[in-house]
Amino acid sequence: MKIKAAVLHEMGLDRPYAKSRPVKIEELELDRPEEGEVLVRITAAGICHSDLSILSGVRPRPLPMALGHEGAGIVEDVGPGIDDLARGDHVVFVFMPSCGVCGPCSEGRPAICDPGLAANVAGTLLGGGRRLHLNGDSISHQVGVSCFAEAAVVSRRSLVKVDPELPLEQAALFSCAVITGVGSVVNAARMPAGHTVAVVGLGGTGLAALLGAKAAGATRIVGLDVLPHKLDIARDLGADFVFDANAGDVIEQVKQATGGGVDFAFECAGEVEAMELAYGVTRRGGTTVTSGLSHPEHMMKISHVNVVVEERTIIGSYLGSCVPQRDIPHYIELFQQGKLPVEALISSKVPLEDINEAFDNLAEGKVLRQIITF
């Protein structure tokens, strides 16, 4: 079948993207689903900083590539071997497919599935195939999803069935922003109620972490960012204190406001400087969790002896350290109960044809989540 999709041919072009136009809307040929695969009609897809990092070249991927990793849709067809999904089911995508049998999967850590990582790096589906073609040539899938398109064929392992009562434009948020942010709090940090929290980087993931900390019973929440309007949003969503992350004395400001630093700090900006700031505002004996994705060559500087004598803990969290089949329905239930108001993360809805302009808005920090609707 023929579909319209957003395709990246070259990384590292100059901004504004509205002028350089790195992403092209092209007609692709999409294969039918094979064994263990599902055809999904896309209804909504969120534009995330992880997508932006591919455009900029921070996270190199094999090109040309059909973009998009956060989204939701409706099952159109299933391949052989699938008996737990049917036409009409509502689903959200998971950007790390899990094989279920490798070492990490067997330990209950599907977010770091070995075959899933290999497939994502190679630009294939979990089974190793490519189902997208441009002018007769196969092109790469972004993390096995490629949902900036009218439809996608993905591994069953890249999907979670969700409540059909949930609007699909909101469901898309649970594909990445919510599970990454909330999951970093409840899965990676395992934060008990009654603790103090700081969130560094108040984009979609960071604000989801803030909402997750609030729902988990944090006593005081600190938001840090370089953009004033994001500090305002954090305050509206429950932050007790907000600070300019660029202020020269910001670490002392946080320590003064929290009595020596926070129990848990969450880095959600994807910059080494943000990670160092998150570590700096964490108290002695505290835990610093990072879920941002910086350039692979960028290194952070942290005192080794400080980690030891202050008994610090540093945790990396990918995909919110989630078990998606378990956690996504649970987070949706919390949302439906009014305990996780993630609809506040949606800044606007945009057509697929305006994707380059949308990436400019994201790069300039003007928006949280822009949702492409089909």
Strand percent estimate: 25-35%
What is the helix content? 25-40%
Our count of helices gives: 13
Main sheet characteristics: 7 strands, mixed
- Our count of domains comes out at 2
**What is the CATH level 1 assignment of the largest domain?**
Alpha Beta
Number of strands: 19
3D shape: globular
Mean pLDDT: 97
First-to-last CA distance: 17 Å
Provide the gyration radius in Å.
Answer: 20 Å
Low-confidence stretches: none
Helix-strand makeup class: alpha/beta
Structural overview:
The protein is built from 13 helices and 19 strands. It is an alpha/beta fold. The protein folds into 2 domains: 207 residues, Quinone Oxidoreductase, Chain A, domain 1 (Alpha-Beta Complex); 141 residues, 3-Layer(aba) Sandwich (Rossmann fold). Strands 3, 5, 6, 10, 11, 18 and 19 form a 7-stranded mixed sheet that branches. It has a 6-stranded mixed sheet with strand order 8-7-2-1-4-9, with no helix packed on it. Helix 8 links the parallel strand 13 and strand 14. Helix 6 crosses helix 7. It is globular.
Task: Give the arrangement of secondary structure elements.
Blueprint: E1 2-8, H1 17-20, E2 23-30, E3 37-47, H2 49-56, E4 65-66, E5 70-78, E6 90-93, H3 103-106, H4 114-122, E7 132-134, E8 137-138, E9 140-141, E10 151-155, E11 159-161, H5 168-171, H6 177-188, E12 196-200, H7 204-215, E13 220-225, H8 228-236, E14 241-244, H9 250-258, E15 262-267, H10 272-280, E16 282-290, H11 304-309, E17 313-316, H12 324-336, E18 346-350, H13 355-363, E19 369-373
Parallel strand pairs: 4-9, 12-13, 12-15, 13-14, 15-16, 16-17, 18-19
Antiparallel strand pairs: 1-2, 1-4, 2-7, 3-5, 3-10, 3-19, 5-6, 6-11, 7-8
Helix pairs in contact: 6-7, 6-12
